[in-house]
Amino acid sequence: MNTISQLAIICICFSCNQKGAENSQQSNPKSIPSKTESKSSTISKEALLGVWTDGTGPNATFVLSTDSIEYADSEEVSAYAYDLVNDSIVIHYADHDYQAKVITGKDSLIFEGRDVKAVFTRFKE
User: Fold this and answer.
1) Are 104 and 48 contacting, i.e. CB atoms less than 8 angstroms apart?
2) CA–CA separation, 105 vs 121, rounded Å?
3) Which of 53, 57, 67, 111 could form a disulfide with 123 if both were Cys (CB 3.0 to 4.6 A apart)?
4) What is the pLDDT of residue 18?
5) Do 64 and 50 touch, CB atoms closer than 8 A?
6) Which has the closest alpha carbon to 101: 88, 82, 91?
7) Residue 15 and residue 120: Cα distance in Å, rounded?
8) Which residues of 13-35 are buried (b: 16+ CB within 10 A; e: fewer)?
9) Please, what's the b/e burial string for 62-77 (b: 16 or more CB within 10 A of its CB; e: otherwise)?
10) pLDDT tens-digit readout, 1-24
11) How far is residue 14's CA from residue 97's CA, in Å, rounded to a whole number?
């Protein structure tokens, strides 16, 4: 085999390896930050804190504190941790995580989930 042929084969192999490495870096899931890794949020936590009602009864529905959401009428363990991620809340229940987009107003709070839109107002005692 002559020198030119050997050099051409080496160049082709080198360029294929470089493209393969670039493609594997692009498809590597570690290079894409997930929502659970990045806990930055566009939601003001202060706007969420407080006692909220859905208006279906005379009592509050839940209390949002700095680190948990606690349901008022539950007889079981009712405090669950939550995270704010981008424009959403992720509530960590014992058997699943619930995620919903959060929209806040002066005295209103809306959770837009996959199949449901829940509207809450600040509970006035």
Assistant:
1) yes
2) 9
3) 53
4) 43
5) yes
6) 88
7) 59
8) eeeeeeeeeeeeeeeeeeeeeee
9) bbbeeeebeeeeeeee
10) 443 434 444 434 444 444 444 444
11) 46
Which residues make beta-bridge pairs with 101? 88, 112
Q: Considering the domain 45-122, what is its CATH architecture?
A: Beta Barrel (2.40)
29-45 average pLDDT score: 53
Q: What is the pLDDT of residues 76-87, one digit of tens each?
A: 778 999 999 999
Amino acid at 81: A
pTM to 2 decimal places: 0.65
Return the H-helix or E-strand segment holding 8. Answer: helix 3-27
pLDDT at 76: 77
Contact residues for 52 (Cβ-Cβ < 8 A; gap 6+): 60, 61, 62, 63, 64, 109, 120, 121, 122, 123
43 within 8 A of 89, measured Cβ to Cβ: yes
Give the residue extent of every domain in the chain.
1-32, 45-122
